[in-house]
Design a protein that fits this description.
The chain is mainly beta. It has one domain (3-374): Beta-galactosidase, Chain A, domain 5 (Distorted Sandwich). The chain is 4% helix and 40% strand.
Length: 381
Amino acid sequence: MTPHILLLFYLIGLPGTDSATSPDVAADVDVVVAAVGTMPDGAVIEQYTVTNALQTEVRVLTYGATLTGVLLPDRDGHIENVTLHLDTCADYLRGHPLFGSVVGRYANRIAGGAFEIDGQRFELTKNMGPHQIHGGTDGFHRINWRAQPVRLDDRAGVELTHASPDGHEGYPGTLEVRVRYLLTNGNELVMEYWARTDRTTHLNVTNHAYWNLAGAGSGNVLDHVVQINANEVVVANAQRFPTGELRDVAGTALDFRVPRRVGDRIDQVEDQNYDDCYVLHKQEQHALALAARVVDPQSGRGMEVYTTQPGVQFYTAKGLGGQAGGGGATYGPYHGLCLETQHFPDSPNHPHFPTTLLRPGEAFHEITLHRFWTQSPVAGQ
């Protein structure tokens, strides 16, 4: 058995099987379900609240399969929600910058809003000028997903399912999608995605959480320290569409191979905003491997991101400006950062990129794991 598969079993376990449990964190993870709103057609929107033995709390809304909360203590025990979020279902229904939503069918950009499969051209809905971004105007973030609680050995959460009809937003094939959020007693949040299609299609699914480890609404993340496990980025033009090239990050402001403040060199990048797809450094394709680390020195909160995906889009949200947020907060430029694990933007139009094709009989399966911790207080403080 290869090392990365052993790691996968240890961190994730398998659906329906037992998982390793540390003796000091063996208490059950609790799941509570509540109706919190309604869709325009009257369908009920639910929120799933998951709490572990370490008092970490995760909240997931069925609308958009949206992660609305990850509540963590800082080094002094003060608990804050570290994801940007809104207060009510009505706020989410009015529209938002994809705070915590599952994005699909295709996360990120598709140039010209079209692609070819086996010689047939498919025109997608355009929601970014002549292009498509994040699955179109009515993507996964606009769906009220079916949901049920999941309880395993040392982890629990919610499983959400959706059947995307053939031709929706222009994509071929009826697509059956399943998303699972699991919180463990090791303070790991596991996001797992499965899909099957009855017709060859393209698929690229991610979660669009905005992280602020100092607490949502606390200010900007320019003092967060980030490390990204990547030697290359996908080269993009001024509109952020790939040129097809990959470029070494060495000697550039995109180099996060060693920990660095977000704000250290942000004035040297395009539009003073990171919005770049990093090519993750992996020993084996599709291995569950480290993508990034983030630390907020002020609160002591830290996060590691592991994924089976080949890339991660690092986005620092300069475009937020006066967005009303949860708890009366106003989210401004740089008030959150995204680490969107995914395949590369516009892969359908760049055949040499890792493929996003999904054919009948094949199973799409991707995992992203967030591990949270808190640094101890510094002596003398």
